[in-house]
Amino acid sequence: MVLKIFFPQCCNRADSGLLVGRWISGHDSAVVLAVIHYPFIPGQVKQYVQQVSAKSGVELSVLGSWSLPKEGQEGMESFLRDLSTIFPQQRWLQIHREIGKTGFTCEVLNRDQSKTTFANMLLLVQMFQTVATSQPLFFMDRYDDGPLKSTHWQSEGREASIIVELLKQASVPLCLLISWLLSIWTWICNIRIFSLYPLRWLSSKLSTCVQLSYKTEHMRTLSSAKPAAGHTQFMRKANILVSFLVDVALGMLLISWLYRDNHIAMLANTLVPAADHVAKELDELLQWLMGAPAGLKMNRALDQVLGRFFLYHIHLWISYIHLMSPFIEGILWYGGLSACLGLTFALSLLSDMVALLTFHIYCFYVYGARLYCLKIYGLSSLWRLFRGKKWNVLRQRVDSCSYDLDQLFIGTLLFTVLLFLLPTTALYYLVFTLLRLVVVLFQGVLHLSVDFINSFPLFAVGLRIFRPYRLAEGVKFRVLCEEPGTALHLLMEINPLKFSTVVQMYRTPTYSCYPKDSWAALVKKLFVGELIYPWRHKTIKTE
Amino acid sequence: MEDEAFTDINGKAISLDCQSHSGLCREFTVSSPKVSVGKVMVYTCCVWLLAYTVFFFTENTAVLSSAILITLLGMMLHIHFVKVDHESLLVIGSLGIQVSSSYASGRETTKFIEMSKIKDIVINEAIYMHQIIYYLCVLLKDPSEPDAVSSVVPLFQSSKPRLNCLVKVYKSCQEILSKC
């Protein structure tokens, strides 16, 4: 087996001394964690290594000697070679480098014959685990004034940031404040009066209330007193925090645009005429349908009934809008304030307002769809009667059946009536379904953008751009030098995750709204006349 | 360093470069055929002719500027994400295998597979549209189950060299894999 030694780059220029690290069993490899410099007392080194070993739980040992001879340090080689007798090891490494050359020369003194044991974990995994758990070894940096001097990857000082430390100090009282506010809010929400049936059903349908509960959950995660348990939890908390801050910033931007230059009054002034215009268009549409639309000849009586019914609805709705028109500006003003909680709130409020304003289109769609659905079912059942068959509910299949003469007579009569009334109903159904689909599409776009803002892992993407070594997919090797007398020298670097993997792995799970049915199922439902609710909301995953 | 005249499955010329860094470490680089200038000119001319015809009918200069922008953007995206310049395979005995492809813009994607996960390197056959081609692939195994093949990683996917090139790489790799 080939001997593999993992050597930290920081020790490339370190002074001569002893190598401290760990032998990884089963792979014939060693990880060098630090170099303890000459001069040292071997007894102190042994004690120190034992101490650190016990504290970290990793079996550290003195691996061998490292020599980088500078001027005035001859005789080092023999001294370091003699050290192998002081530290009784199975294998003793001697790594040597000349200044000016990149290659190392490496010799191994094998005392006992080592037996190859079976490796049950990957080499690189074990190596990184060793480095991660040997934290106590890296506490001694070069500014310490102890008997031993060492060089390791943190000997220049540990990487830290003042801002992060300040935030850590400030976060404790902030978390307490937020959790207190949240407890008050949950108490308000749990008051009995809000648990009555209609309010509860309404709050589950309105997307604003859903957003509120969702954001409360997030705040609860953020303000919990325990620190994050693992990497995933930490990334999730950080992503939630950053998304929330960006959300609020975008909301503030929207507010600054909305409340400037009297934009609200402008919006309110265009809203009522717009609603009037929509109602007028619908009016004209119905008049057209009641005439001879596209040259088709409708059944006059049914046409008039349906048309007048829908026209009356529109008249009711327009009077309602005119009743509300003095209050619209006030509603918009206070509604716009909700954007200070985040852009997602403003968008959900907009989606709810659109749903309320186009409620009449929804009603028309339901009426048209129900009529059409009844007609289709009646037709299919009477068609079966026409052919002498019947639907067997018990067996869920079509069976032949012998009908009496009067059953056949009435059935055929009804069948013909329904069949000739079909074009009229179908046309009304088609028109109102198209209108409903337009509204659903618009609401879907709003919900998708809310979803996107909520679930996109901004912190993870930022980390990937600015500190790519913290999100690693693996390692990559590069051949550094191949001088013939020396060992093969490779440079190992962290291979960061791809952006697509980052987004996929660290997405915050949301009540994502996605199409419930495939296209085929949707078309079938439209054809038969079943009511469609194309966007489905998943329940929030609780972990 | 060796450079013979190899071709890929479509007949275009590619080159293979074998470097032996040490007894246990070898690197194979297969360079794909370069983009021909003629093809680029043909595409650009087509797009711009189309833009001019649309401009002739609509008299809107935004059409022309958007055509230029689209061409530039398309070319940049193509050389950054699609066009592979060369693919390399670095075999380090008893450590692992590293597969990397570098794109025309200089971007490199690398993947390293540890030796304990590798079962073998083989030449496999595949049905690719209307032909049957040979490709070199790495068979991976789960370290706990040394007999089952858990997945297959195909190598040199963009350059698709022919069998003579693959055999050369295969023989070299097997020498190293058998030593440890």
From TrEMBL, chain A:
Pfam family, one: Gpi1
Keyword Acetylation: no
Keyword Glycoprotein listed: no
BP terms from Gene Ontology: GPI anchor biosynthetic process
Keywords: Membrane, Transmembrane, Transmembrane helix
Membrane-spanning segments: 177-197, 240-259, 305-324, 331-358, 364-386, 407-431, 437-461
Gene Ontology cellular component annotations, sorted alphabetically: endoplasmic reticulum; membrane
UniProt-recorded name of the protein: Phosphatidylinositol glycan anchor biosynthesis, class Q
Organism: Sparus aurata (Gilthead sea bream)
UniProtKB/TrEMBL annotation, chain B:
Boundaries of every Phosphatidylinositol N-acetylglucosaminyltransferase subunit H conserved domain copy: 88-157
UniProtKB keywords: Membrane, Transmembrane, Transmembrane helix
UniProt KW Metal-binding keyword: no
InterPro entries linked to this entry: PIG-H, PIGH-H_dom
Source superkingdom: Eukaryota
One Pfam family hit: PIG-H
PANTHER family: PHOSPHATIDYLINOSITOL N-ACETYLGLUCOSAMINYLTRANSFERASE SUBUNIT H
Family recorded in the similarity comment: Belongs to the PIGH family.
The protein's name: Phosphatidylinositol glycan anchor biosynthesis, class H
Organism this protein belongs to: Sparus aurata (Gilthead sea bream)
